[in-house]
From TrEMBL:
Origin species: Halomonas korlensis
Originating gene: xseA
Keyword Glycosyltransferase annotated: no
Top-level taxonomy: Bacteria, Pseudomonadati, Pseudomonadota, Gammaproteobacteria, Oceanospirillales
HAMAP family tied to this protein: Exonuc_7_L
Record-level GO cellular component terms: cytoplasm; exodeoxyribonuclease VII complex
UniProt name for this protein: Exodeoxyribonuclease 7 large subunit
């Protein structure tokens, strides 16, 4: 190897000459493209990439010019910028120093994203909403093995739930091969589910990036593969502000990989705290129960008496009742004897034979007085009856009939008092002093 030529330029000289050439020969120009990777550090400068379908151009908008930009600059926006080409000498970065920014409409990628999103929504690809097992028995993570996403997920799982079983399925998460690899991995995991039923959740994740960096997760076929997955899928792509079609097609969407891990498993420290609290409550409840049972036992022990004492009390009460029964029987017998003596004295003072003789004597006397009294009463009633018969005979219609009069009656037994009460041909009954006559009315006379 020959020593370097003394006329060789240093790296600094090359970058300085390139910068001078760009600034002198090209000068100021307008460039149109789509914003991507917009960054706003604390310095107040704005760094971003301006791109089209075939190339990218790094841009820097310094703070003194950024404050004059009226509309916010967002990834996907299409803009026109005025600036001059230059090189950042310390790193040799080729860039456009922007002086002014004008909006040029929605970016092509973002417009394509919105069109595809609307079409898939109409087809029902975003209708998944299955609940995930909590915690999952076996978590399958589809992501890059070297990315920050898997490190964040594993760190959170180790801190919150060390028991979690995790299997990493390494796939590219950026570029043209990313979407086919993700689709193939999803198909493989669904086919293998029958071999290992414990596999119950798929996590599709990657870290943040620009819209084009995340574009693989906006693939139409990937969204359909997630929708048709028999295993439930959680999507955690990019940062919180990033949204992809994979997020909409998944059963659950999480804003970041770390947040996804937090959603998937409980916090063991929280569970340990709850377990400790429940254990303390259980211990307090047990102590309280033991204290109450001890007090109840003391109370029952105080009330408990030896069976001999109860038998003695019952025996004493039995003796007392026996004495009361004997006294009651003796008193009843004495009362009955006194009553018997009293009745005997009354019976001897008034013997039934004497009372019977007296009653017989009274009966004979009454029988002797009864016959004359009956004769007198009978005679009196005969005299009264004869007087009433004479009075009745005096006013009886039958006595009038005996003197030659008659009483006429119609068919109903009604007495005829006027000739107008009859009609020719009518049959009447004539009641005489002795017997009756049936008469027929021939004609009626007024007199």
């Amino acid at each position: 190897m020959s020593p370097p030529d003394a006329s060789a330029l240093s790296v600094s000289d090359v970058n300085r000459r390139a910068k001078q050439t760009l600034e002198r020969d090209i000068g100021e120009l307008w460039v149109e493209g789509e914003l991507s990777g917009v960054s706003r550090p604390g310095s107040g400068h704005v760094y971003f990439t301006l791109k089209d379908a075939r190339a990218q151009l790094r841009c820097a908008l310094f703070r003194t010019r950024a404050r004059f930009v009226a509309s916010p600059m967002r990834d996907g926006d299409r803009v026109k910028v005025r600036g001059r080409l230059s090189i950042f000498e310390p790193r040799g970065d080729y860039q456009l120093i922007v002086e002014a920014v004008q909006a040029a409409g929605l970016g092509d990628l973002l417009a394509a994203f919105e069109r595809l999103k609307a079409r898939l929504a109409d087809e029902g690809v975003f209708a998944n909403a299955r609940a995930l097992p909590y915690p999952p028995r076996h978590l399958l993570v589809l992501t890059s093995p070297t990315g920050a996403a898997i490190r964040d997920v594993l760190a959170v799982l180790a801190a919150r739930w060390p028991l979690a079983q995790v299997t990493l399925i390494p796939v590219p998460v950026q570029g043209r091969e990313a979407a086919p690899a993700l689709i193939s991995a999803l198909g493989m995991l669904n086919r293998q589910q029958a071999l290992d039923p414990n596999r119950d959740v798929i996590l599709v994740t990657r870290g943040g990036g620009s819209l084009e960096d995340l574009w693989a997760f906006n693939d139409e076929h990937l969204a359909r593969a997630i929708f048709h997955s028999r295993l439930p899928v959680m999507s955690a792509v990019g940062h919180e502000v990033d949204v992809t079609l994979a997020d909409f097609a998944a059963d659950v969407r999480s804003p970041t990989p770390s947040a996804a891990a937090e959603q998937l498993v409980p916090d063991r420290r929280e569970l340990q705290g709850r377990l400790a609290m429940l254990a303390a409550r259980l211990e307090r409840a047990q102590l309280g129960r033991l204290e109450r049972d001890a007090q109840r036992l003391d109370h029952l022990r105080a009330r408990l008496r030896h069976p001999r004492d109860a038998l003695e009390r019952q025996r004493a009460r039995l003796d007392q009742l026996h004495g009361r029964l004997i006294r009651a029987i003796e008193e009843r017998l004495a009362a009955e004897r006194r009553r018997e003596t009293h009745l005997a004295r009354r019976l001897s003072a008034h013997p039934p034979a004497r009372q019977l003789a007296q009653a017989t004597q009274r009966l004979e006397g009454a029988r002797t007085r009864l016959a004359p009294a009956m004769q007198r009463e009978l005679a009196r009633h005969r005299e009264r009856f004869a007087g009433l018969a004479r009075e009745l005979q005096a006013v009886s219609p039958l006595s009038v009939l005996g003197r030659g009069y008659a009483i006429l009656e119609d068919e109903r037994g009604q007495v005829i008092r006027r000739s107008q009460d009859t009609r020719p041909g009518q049959t009447l009954t004539a009641r005489l002093g002795e017997g009756r006559l049936k008469l027929e009315v021939k004609r009626r006379l007024k007199r």
